[in-house]
Amino acid sequence: MSGTDWRSGSRRELLSESAAGALFLCLAVPTALAGFAEGAPDAGLVALLVVLYALASRAVEFPLGGGYVVPSYAVLVPMLLLLPPGCVPLLAAAGLLMGDLAKAVARRESLLRLTAAVPDAWPTIGPAAALLAFGSPHGRLALAGVYCLAFLAGCLLDLLSCTLLTHRAGARSRLRASVFAWAIDACFAPLGLLLAWEMREDGTAVLLVLPLGLAMALAARDRDRRIAQAQSRLELLARERARLQGAVGRLGDALAAKLDLRALADVVLRGSVEALDCDGGRVSLTGPIEPLGIAAGRSGDAAALRTAAERARADSTACQLVSDGVWALALPFGFLGEAGPVRGAIAVARRERPFRHDEQLLMEGLVERAREAAADILAREELHRHATTDSLTRLGNRRKLLADVERLVTDATPLAPLTLVLFDLDGFKQYNDAFGHPAGDALLERLSRRLEAAAEPHGAAYRLGGDEFCALVRLPRQEASERVGALAAALTEIGENYAVTASHGSVSLPAEAVTLSDAMLLADERMYSRKRSRSRRAPAAPSRERAVYDPLLRESTSNEDTCSRPPKVPRQGSSSRGC
Asked: pTM of the entire structure?
């Protein structure tokens, strides 16, 4: 016999089941009273059959479609044959109600389940009505016909009750489920007949149904357990798939973004830890870059992670090991950068579970994508470095200065403003003409290192081109004049036959200028104003030129008589000339 599944019912079905239960009672109570009036059956037998019917109908349930199948006919047939047929529907409803009440109390479930108990007894009205109508005819053939008619009546009412009370399934699926339930009932009906005939001599023979019911209950319980396990595995797989999709999606977004190497390594590590359901991980990189090491998760797995990473890096292949119950999987994580090869490893760890081959393949795919992205990042950083660095002095260029001004000017305060100092070398052209361009380049490199060292505690130095330099520093107002003088002194070099100094002009940002172009224009005006004032104060300006040219003139004059001999000129990087 089939039944409806109360747990998935809507409010509409709840109302329909309540109405069906009320209608059932309107029919079952009068027929039960009439049956008891004809002759009161043995109370002990009635109680035993009701309890057994409750066990057969509620202790053993095989899910089927929107309801379930129960072996209730093994007890229902003896009830119909040993008790007044008119009493059986009400007693069956009482057994169903008893079984549902016991399950609700034992499982602490809602009592709303009881509303489905009484309507589930509707199929018992069909057999009872057939037996009341035809009684017990003489002859085995006639009796078999009555029994078959009673069974068909029960099947018809079962189909009608399922159709009226179940609104979710279609007609075809309802019919298929009902046919399966009728086949189960047809298998148990002969067993019920045998028990009924045996109980006419010994009422306790009905207890023979208990071993069979217990076996079916255990089978149903094992089936439910297996279904629950399969459902749990499916849910676990669904969660793993969602986690993997999320991790791979975030990793793909990260790889597509313009990250730096540290951010990329952190994303790859955390994505691998999440994708493989790990407890922790570690990534390390060394080579022509700043050494990088990132850890995530539990620190107790550090030893296994370190060992696996060292082996993977040394062997350039995947390594999986177990240490103190911790399984670690490490992959080499190296790539070729512009300055040379970068070597490293990425390792993840978890407890109690080794890593499957498909998980290793997944991590290898993530690492391979990260390896390509890391090489692109280094190439992009190298291009950016070339684009923002002066090739001779390795100082930042005008493009780098613009980026730094835009980044730092927003944090400047009146007490610690951002100061831009523009420098122009005095005497460098004469030095370059006298000693040659290689010597001039060497001088620019020396001056650049000094300017960089002087500016480094407070900011950065830049070469704008030719003999123009710049410094961007953050200085307190009371120290600004002294520090600017120290920067100018760093660009000064005086030798035996030359003197190179620097004129400068400074601007406070953002008090005096907001944009770099405005600041450069104002600093340039102040620098040339300082040049002009220095020229007026020192009219014997040829002092710097004479420091270079007078020795040349004296050397040339003293050798007029020996033109074949080259002049003794301290000249580097250029060919000697005669007089």
From this structure: 0.46
